[in-house]
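Q: I'm building a small set of examples for a reading group on sequence design. Run inverse folding on the following structure and report the sequence directly after it, with nothing in between.
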């Protein structure tokens, strides 16, 4: 992509309404623009990151054996009445009427829709287990949207739902999803914790949250310094424990001591059991030919929230530092004198095409601006590697390779593949 053609409205300063670093940087780096409270347009740069995360999620879900569908965002009241959630969900559920005065809602989640699909199309235990997922826009009418896409009203989510013949089968699927979520977060390159959690409005027998550790996180979690033990302090507060008294105490699992951290919830997995299946009479015939109520699980990942969480964990005073796996571009070619020197322009375009053929996602800064402006913009948007081509190239056939972390070196352009491997 030529930067001169890219819709990239960067800002020197973030609007005052932006409170957390991810919101500030997403606005400054031209990733999103606000349309209404908690509702954003994703611009080209932001959408590239969003799609890269979406693709990682899809690849790992497919590898787990889950099957992708796409369900409607608009859902009828009748399905929600079956589980009594039309009223239980409260004002977060945005209710609408069509021209015939029939009641619908904008889907914040899809338990009712997917359970209706399965009860009408799956009849035997031989067809189980099933794990069905989608990556789709959700809407929750938050009372106070804040922190940009971190807590918006409209957001992109991967939600999946498993259907199992019994508790043992559900447990197996649940553990598969647990490992799948670990794979997703590790591929993105985030520091996270799996946290025992409250099931909240979704309900069910048990649940765990996946938290990206960050000081701006809305959740407070107690974790062990030496093990995977972690719990959302909401659960402890329900039991009347004093959170302040936990710091430095031995971990309940006997490994390390308790530390209090802040986390951003990016995923949540639930053992629903029979909660929705009983309400909606979702049964199949078991191996004895008798009707058996399905055991369900549901599993959510905030795809758009992961963009913000990644920025919260990866930034400095210059801008975003993307993990390589989700960076909008792998390499930015900073051409100094592109518009004035034909030799630099030709060399830059050849390098651009060569790198694309090698499989890299490449940006070419062909603007008339000087080195300082171009480098500042590149650091702001977080491209992992810059290749600076200017006078040095004309004189010695060398280009400067400069990583987002600040490492740099002059290198002969003919040895580019070896050099790029070094900078990975």
């Amino acid at each position: 992509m030529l930067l001169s053609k890219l819709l990239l409205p960067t800002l020197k300063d973030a609007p005052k309404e932006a409170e957390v670093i991810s919101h500030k940087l997403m606005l400054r780096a031209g990733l999103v623009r606000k349309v209404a409270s908690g509702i954003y347009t994703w611009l080209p740069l932001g959408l590239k990151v969003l799609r890269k995360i979406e693709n990682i999620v899809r690849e790992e879900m497919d590898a787990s054996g889950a099957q992708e569908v796409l369900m409607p965002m608009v859902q009828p009241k009748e399905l929600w009445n079956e589980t009594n959630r039309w009223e239980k969900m409260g004002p977060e559920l945005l209710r609408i009427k069509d021209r015939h005065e029939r009641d619908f809602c904008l889907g914040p989640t899809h338990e009712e829709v997917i359970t209706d699909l399965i009860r009408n199309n799956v009849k035997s235990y031989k067809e189980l287990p099933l794990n069905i997922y989608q990556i789709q826009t959700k809407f929750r009418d938050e009372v106070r949207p804040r922190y940009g896409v971190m807590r918006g009203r409209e957001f992109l989510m991967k939600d999946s739902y498993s259907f199992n013949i019994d508790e043992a089968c559900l447990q197996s699927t649940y553990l598969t999803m647990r490992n799948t979520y670990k794979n997703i977060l590790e591929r993105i390159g985030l520091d996270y914790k799996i946290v025992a959690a409250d099931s909240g409005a979704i309900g069910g027998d048990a649940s765990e949250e996946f938290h990206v550790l960050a000081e701006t996180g809305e959740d407070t979690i107690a974790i062990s310094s030496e093990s995977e033990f972690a719990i959302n302090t909401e659960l402890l507060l329900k039991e009347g424990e004093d959170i302040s008294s936990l710091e430095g105490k031995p971990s309940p699992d006997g490994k390390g001591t308790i530390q209090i951290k802040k986390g951003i919830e990016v995923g949540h997995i639930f053992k629903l059991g029979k909660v929705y299946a009983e309400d909606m009479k979702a049964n199949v015939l078991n191996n004895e030919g008798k009707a058996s109520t399905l055991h369900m699980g549901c599993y959510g990942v905030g795809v758009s929230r992961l963009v913000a969480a990644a920025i919260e964990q990866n930034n400095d005073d210059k801008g975003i530092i993307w993990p390589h796996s989700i960076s909008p571009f792998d390499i930015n070619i900073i051409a100094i004198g592109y518009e004035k020197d034909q030799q630099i322009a030709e060399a830059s375009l050849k390098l651009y095409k060569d790198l694309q053929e090698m499989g890299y996602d490449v940006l070419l800064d062909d603007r008339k601006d000087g080195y300082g402006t171009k480098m500042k913009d590149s650091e702001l948007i977080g491209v992992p590697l810059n290749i600076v081509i200017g006078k040095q190239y004309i004189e010695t056939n060398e280009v400067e390779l400069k990583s987002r972390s600040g490492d740099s070196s002059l290198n002969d352009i003919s040895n580019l593949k070896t050099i790029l491997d070094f900078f990975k």
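The chain is about 30% helix and 30% strand.
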